Amino acid sequence: MRKTQRPDFTRAVQWLSKHMATLTQACLVLCLALISVAYIRIFNPTASESAFSPASRPLPIYNVDTQEKKIAISFDAAWGEEKTDEILQILKDRDIETTFFLVGYWVDKYPDRVRQIAEAGHEIGHHSNTHPHMSELSEAQIAQELNDLSDKVEALTGTRPTLFRPPYGDYDDEVVLTARKNGYEVVQWNVDSLDWKNLGVTPMFERVTKNLAPGAIVLFHNNSQYITEALPIILDAILEEGYEIVPVSELIVDGEYWIDHTGKQYAGTVGGANG
Fold this sequence. Notes:
Blueprint: H1 9-43, E1 63-64, E2 70-77, H2 84-93, E3 99-102, H3 104-109, H4 111-119, E4 123-126, H5 139-157, E5 163-164, H6 173-181, E6 185-186, E7 191-192, H7 201-210, E8 217-221, H8 227-240, E9 244-246, H9 248-251, E10 257-259, E11 264-267
Parallel strand pairs: 1-11, 2-3, 2-8, 2-9, 3-4, 5-6, 7-8
Antiparallel strand pairs: 10-11
Helix pairs in contact: 2-8, 5-6, 7-8
């Protein structure tokens, strides 16, 4: 009769002893991961929202969902005009059209520059009339800020702006809804050159080029310290990567759209505050 062999318990015990530390670490990592997920679900539920979830409140457009290698360049103009000629020449040399978001008192002070920008083929956007914190205004005051500047731009160029960028990036639901009620699309940016911090050419170049992706909206200021030195280098790098640079209105969706919780605009309709 064949004798039944007993399992080699000694070998099993030796293996467990050898790998006990690794198994303990793995269990600890798994427990911490589960605790982290539970914490996020309870205390920060929006962090786990899908990229395809519509925003639960009205949001501006920060960037656009597109498969095309296309981006928009924008300039905010609230102070100074000394560098306008050079900026326009840099853009002309590369056959690039962009969007300039103008403030009312800049328009008042430099009407010839407004005409010059428009005649060069660039889009003029709305950056308020007096550069206030828009979220501190009533609906009537918001509408007045919008309409007063549009009247000035139309008188100079024959065209009313259709895009609005709130000063300081400051907005609330009422600002967004009032702007849309008055015929303006609200536009922010998702790539900030931080040129207003005067950090130098290299930081500007790296911030823009390293964060670029199809559908991006890039923010510059027309009279920042290093704009004329950095702009040609940045534009050439963008073009070399195969991107097309267009005004903001040619990038954003024309027609039905929705915006997700990050501010990305998608074509089509999905239920939600921006659907």
